[in-house]
Design brief:
This protein has 331 residues and is α+β, with helices and mostly antiparallel strands. Helices cover 63% and strands 17% of the residues. Strands 1-2-3-4 form a 4-stranded antiparallel beta sheet, with no helix packed on it. The two termini are 68 Å apart. 13% of the residues are buried.
Length: 331
């Protein structure tokens, strides 16, 4: 973004006159007679100014392109921030999910250890077969095997979060190591109309600004077909000795104008205009692609959210049934 701002400042500088200061001191030797050289000193101080009049809008269009490119770069920055925040949120939810799942697995492990002990005692009493004992042990060991993977997932997610916030792995272990519940989203999400939702996407705004910048570049290229007008002026001091440099007789001024018009360039200007139009066609396709991708993302997100809510309702019903089955089993 800082680079784009500097580039925009360079483009803006073309709207103003340029002034150059110069100074010189010179001695010239002449051979007036054989072996006799005489020297002449000249001293000069001056200011030269020039200003190209932007009659056909080439500079204005170049500045317009720089403004659009700066805006596109700022939208790219916002897009990176959105992606970063999304990664942080996803990893945080995943961390809390791992922690809750680890707590459930440890509770299951304790319960299945108790079940295995009860099944073993019943087998010793002749109330069950050895198959029941081995099945209970199978469930126990499968649950025990899942715990290391969950702990590994917690460590990896903590390391990912540490890196995402600009720290080394392990930076957030102390802050996030304690188990907390999974944060829940609101029941309803107000998305508004699709047009409003799309306007909030920085990737789409960036594509639109890139298209606008290329449109302005076409205008800048087209201005090369027309003549350019420049005004120039100079103020100087010229003298044969340093002491006389600031006398009134040493003062000189000059002013003039220049008209420049490319008469023959072997079609280079026309080809450049055609090139800018082709690049604009590519930018337009990229904008349409960004638009369609954004629409797809929004529709997929809303659809997934709606179906996940249905899945959650079924899981809640299954959870309630499992609680009732657990109470009956305890009885």
């Amino acid at each position: 973004v800082r680079q784009a701002r500097i580039s925009r400042g360079i483009a803006d500088a073309d709207r103003y006159p340029s002034v150059n200061a110069s100074g010189s001191a010179r001695r010239t030797y002449r051979n007036e007679m054989a072996g006799d050289f005489s020297g002449t000193d000249t001293f000069n101080l001056g200011l030269d100014a020039s200003w190209e009049l932007d009659i056909f809008g080439g500079v204005r269009r170049s500045l317009e392109a720089s403004d659009a490119e700066l805006a596109a770069t700022e939208e790219s920055y916002r897009d990176v921030l959105v992606s970063l925040l999304a990664e942080v949120a996803l990893n945080y939810v995943e961390l809390r999910s791992y922690q809750v799942r680890l707590g459930v697995a440890e509770a299951n492990l304790r319960s299945q250890e108790e079940t295995w002990e009860i099944t073993r005692w019943r087998h010793e009493a002749g109330l069950t077969t050895a198959l029941d004992v081995e099945l209970a042990r199978t469930n126990l060991e499968q649950t025990r095997a899942n715990i290391p993977a969950l702990r590994s997932g917690i460590e990896q997610t903590l390391n990912a979060l540490s890196v995402l916030v600009g720290g080394i792995p392990g930076t957030l272990d102390g802050k996030l190591g304690e188990r907390q519940p999974v944060p829940l989203p609101p029941e309803e999400i107000a998305v508004g109309i699709p047009a409003d939702l799309l306007r909030r996407r920085p990737d789409l705004r960036r594509a639109e600004r890139e298209l606008a910048a290329q449109s302005a570049k076409i205008g800048a290229a087209t201005s090369k077909l027309y003549p350019s007008f420049s005004l120039s002026g100079s103020v100087g001091l010229d003298a044969l000795s340093a002491g006389d440099l600031f006398d009134a007789d040493s003062f000189s001024t000059g002013a003039g104008g220049i008209i420049s018009w490319p008469v023959y360039t072997a079609g280079a200007i026309i080809r450049n205009i055609e090139l800018q139009w082709e690049i604009q066609a590519q930018k337009l396709i990229a904008y349409r692609k960004a638009l369609l991708t954004a629409l797809e993302d929004v529709e997929n997100g809303l659809t997934s959210y709606a179906y996940e809510k249905q899945s959650r309702e079924s899981l809640l019903a299954a959870y309630q049934a499992a609680e009732l089955a657990a109470e009956m089993s305890r009885a």
